[in-house]
Amino acid sequence: MTNNLAGQVSGLIAVQRSGEPGYDDAEFWIRGISTFGAGSSALILVDGFERSMNELNIEDIESFTVLKDASATAIYGSRGANGVVLITTKRGKGGKVQIDAKVETTYNTRTITPDLIDGYTYASMMNEARTTRNQEPFFPEDKLYILRNGLDQDLYPNVDWMDVLLKKGAPTYRATINMNGGGSLARYYVSASYVDEGGMYKVDKSLNEDYNTNSNNKRWNYRMNADIDVTRTTLLQVGIGGSLKKMNESGMTSHEIWNSILNQTPTSMPIMYSNGYTPTNSDGDINPWVASTQCGYNEQWWNNIQTNITLNQKLDFITKGLNFIGRFGFDTDNYNFIKRYKCPALWSADRFRKDDGTINFTRKRAEQEMTQTSGNTGERKEYFEAELQYNRNFKSHILSGTLKYTQDSKVKTQEIGNDIKNSL
Predict the structure, then answer these.
(1) Under a CB-based contact definition with an 8 Å cutoff, are residues 261 and 162 in contact?
(2) Of 27, 143, 320, 352, which sees the most CB atoms within 10 A?
(3) Cα separation of 109 and 361, whole Å?
(4) What is the 8-class DSSP label of residue 130?
């Protein structure tokens, strides 16, 4: 959702640091960074509670307000020093049941992909660089001929790593359904959504039946909001929402894969040797194809549940314009991962063929069979807020004021160890 804010809100700066599914949320600032004491990001309040907007279903949002001026953010103290974003989710409306459904498909492509030269051009430029420094060319003319015509893919490969590893694009699928209705005393809003973001890495099709090494992000969202008019002056609002996210990626991170792509030359090593050996160089580096498809896979799960109760009580019987709002929220967040890593045996080849035409191979690293590591984290958060508002007109004058009390706590629920303080 944060990616959609850039260019839509004045004074907002958004930076997306990755395009990988699950890691593509943008960082954003409102009128730059005002203070480092309270963090550099804006304070985000969803239905009055401090929560992340990245896990929200955009179809559940009723209103989106950005507070930038000091007078508007003063009530939030130092937490609002870098601006405040107020998000209100949809509520039920009285009347007949209304059901809305939407299904979307989009196709994502990279905006900029480095255009790397081919192997023959690279070899010619290397020779030119060495010649200008009074050094012998690295590729003699006969080797350039072999390289240009692809006559020896083992010793003189010409690999376009971008084309080998990356797709042109990937689809994203979204489905949303929501329902709202109610009567004069109670109203409800219920929604569910599903998002499936595909990655742009190619995969080894021979492994498809076992596991997938491409990046993928799937998310399920749900929400239920209910409004109950207890009396004419008392409104009780109850909300339950949450999400479940599952992300898949290669056993090596995208950072490591892209480092491999940009550090390899088109002539450094083939994708695989013709005898089935997995190639490496004298330094033991893994080529991009092996890093992306042959090193296992990583699965991650996030799930969170957010509950909140809000009581809005008009106190006109005390004095006109007086209003009390009490809020209580209880959230749980959990994260789990299972990483299954392996690496095939790596072989380097001498840069020449023996008299019988064969190649001498040296094993640089023994095969590492698949191993598994796992872990989890979890926490619960509690919020309490009491707010007394006064707003009254006296002819041509307006008198208003707000008295607010806020309290919150966060406690770890997993991997708390033996330290009692971690569970308090």
Answers:
(1) yes
(2) 143
(3) 40
(4) H
Residue pair 298/249 in contact by the 8 Å Cβ criterion:
yes
Return the axis-axis angle of helices 141-149 and 119-131, rounded to nearest 10°.
Answer: 160
> Residue 200 contacts by C-beta under 8 Å, 6 or more apart in sequence?
108, 110, 166, 167, 168, 169, 170, 215
Q: Taking Cα atoms as reference points, which of 132, 237, 108 lies closest to residue 182?
A: 237
Q: What is d(CA 201, CA 102) in angstroms, rounded to the nearest whole number?
A: 28
Cα separation, 1 vs 58, whole angstroms: 7
Dist. CA 237–CA 187, nearest whole Å = 10
- What kind and span of H or E run contains 393? strand 368-394
Scanning the structure block, which residue is given the tokens 């990655």? Answer: 199
pLDDT tens digit sequence for 3-40: 666 666 666 777 777 888 888 877 777 766 655 544 56
Backbone dihedral angles phi then psi of residue 131, each to the nearest 5 degrees: -65, -40
- Element (H or E) spanning 315, and its range? none
Alpha-carbon distances of 78 from 25, 174, 389, rounded to whole Å? 25, 38, 21
Q: Would you give the distance in Å from CA 122 to the centre of its chain?
A: 36
User: Where do the H-state alpha helices sit in 264-387?
Assistant: 288-293
Cβ–Cβ < 8 Å for 104, 76? no
Model-level pTM? Answer: 0.85
Residue with tokens 């309290």: 407
Instruction: Report yes or no: 294 and 369 within 8 Å, Cβ to Cβ.
Output: no
343-370 tens-digit pLDDT: 999 999 988 889 888 999 999 999 999 9
3 state DSSP class of 14: strand
d(CA 218, CA 220): 7
Q: What are phi and psi of 268, to 5 degrees?
A: -70, -40
Residue 144, classed as helix, strand or coil, is: helix
